[in-house]
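Researcher: Quick test of sequence recovery. Tokens follow.
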């Protein structure tokens, strides 16, 4: 991932300035960053101005809200990598920050216990498994849960297994909208659930079932637990990860709209090769949790 930082030589690795940048990103304000670093807000501002001058780019959008630019995120991620490597060698008292890209369904259904093995403070970016790799490719995270097996340059790719999704709805919803079965016509009328604009699972399942694209009316529910709750409450139908709703199916709170047509999504753990040794406890925990929860 070194090619993500072409201006490091010009920066001469001004770590106090990059540390100020990282704290602003993590805490969301110059004042909170100053408190974390035990310096004044004025000192933090000076460090950021100096860093931006030497970079020739804006690293922080002052907002409100205060947010980092893509280049700012890359620099902060570089500092995270350095601290992670130093922690493995017992060279630093600073806790490393692990910026990881994780899909919401994995986080809600099986991956959270594994994160307890993280060798540092967690900073999670929640993104669709089909897009999480963009964060790793851009040098903004050190590892990602992704559906793409092709390793990013400088990274290793570990196959974890398959997360199975089921198209589910409450019994009352199914009776109301699918009394004669799930067809293109009934799907065009039945409200569906969608996590966000990147969520293509419902459309992929419909294409597999019907053989063509169908325009779906949708509710947007951007939380994994809220998504499952909306299905239970009869708000809409949607693709839910089987480990998360298995008990609902067993108890009849949800029904599978097409038991013979699950949607299987392969998952991979991709991580920076340079920090692989320091990340090993987390990688092992992720692999163990996946083996218990996912299909081979």
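Model:
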């Amino acid at each position: 991932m070194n090619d993500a930082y072409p201006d490091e030589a010009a920066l001469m690795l001004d770590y106090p300035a990059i540390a100020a940048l990282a704290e602003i990103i993590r805490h969301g304000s110059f004042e909170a960053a100053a408190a974390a670093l035990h310096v004044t807000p004025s000192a933090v501002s000076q460090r950021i101005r100096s860093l931006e001058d030497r970079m020739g780019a804006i690293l922080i959008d002052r907002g409100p809200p205060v947010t980092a630019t893509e280049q700012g995120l890359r620099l902060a991620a570089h500092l995270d990598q350095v601290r992670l490597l130093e922690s493995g060698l017992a060279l630093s008292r600073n806790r490393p920050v692990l910026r990881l890209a994780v899909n919401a369904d994995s986080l809600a259904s099986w991956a959270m216990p594994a994160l307890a093995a993280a060798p540092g403070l967690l900073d999670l970016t929640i993104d669709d498994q089909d897009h999480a790799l963009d964060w790793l490719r851009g040098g903004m995270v050190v590892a990602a849960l992704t559906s793409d097996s092709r390793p990013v340059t400088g990274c290793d790719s570990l196959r974890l297994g398959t997360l199975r999704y089921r198209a589910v709805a409450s019994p009352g919803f199914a009776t109301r909208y699918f009394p004669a079965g799930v067809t293109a016509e009934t799907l065009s009328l039945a409200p569906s659930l969608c996590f966000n604009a990147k969520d293509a699972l419902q459309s992929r399942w419909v294409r597999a079932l019907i053989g063509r694209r169908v325009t779906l009316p949708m509710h947007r529910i951007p939380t994994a637990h809220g998504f499952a709750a909306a299905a239970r409450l009869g708000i809409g139908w949607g693709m839910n990860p089987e480990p998360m709703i298995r008990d609902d199916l067993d108890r009849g709170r949800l029904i599978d709209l097409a038991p013979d047509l699950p949607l299987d999504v392969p998952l991979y753990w991709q991580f920076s090769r340079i920090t692989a040794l320091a990340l090993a406890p987390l990688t092992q925990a992720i692999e163990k949790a996946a083996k218990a929860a996912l299909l081979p």
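The domain at 1-95 is CATH 1.10.10.10 (Arc Repressor Mutant, subunit A).
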